[in-house]
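[Meeting: bench + compute handoff]

Bench side (C.D.) handed over the final construct sequence. Compute side (W.E.) agreed to return the predicted structure before the next meeting so the bench team could plan truncations. Sequence as handed over:
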Amino acid sequence: METIILQTDLYEELAKNASQVTKTINDLVNEAVAYYLREQQRLKLNREILAYEQHHPELKQNYLGQWVAMHEQKLIDHDHDGLALYRRIRAKYGHISVLIRQVAEQPIEEVWQRTVSTGKVYQ
């Protein structure tokens, strides 16, 4: 395992912060790294969504109604059974963000949500 060395100013800032929130420096570093990794996966998923939207005309022509998987902005697999596709993708790629979406007529899905407080519908 590789040793990670923090810059002195970062270490000092973390030490101050850790004492204020009653955590260890190690806890703060692990939280920061976990946040960074989640953010990188979110950004990757956004790139996959954009690729799906850009390739939608071709996907619609060839796979309408099927489930497709996008990874590194490319179609990597498809199936009529979304669960079967999901299982294959997880077996091959683990927990890397891979977009799995059913190809519909429109590239962007509409989401309707009814609020509890007002009962109004927002699109």
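W.E. noted at the follow-up: Strands lie at 67-71, 74-79, 99-102, 113-114, 121-122. C.D. will use this when planning the next construct.
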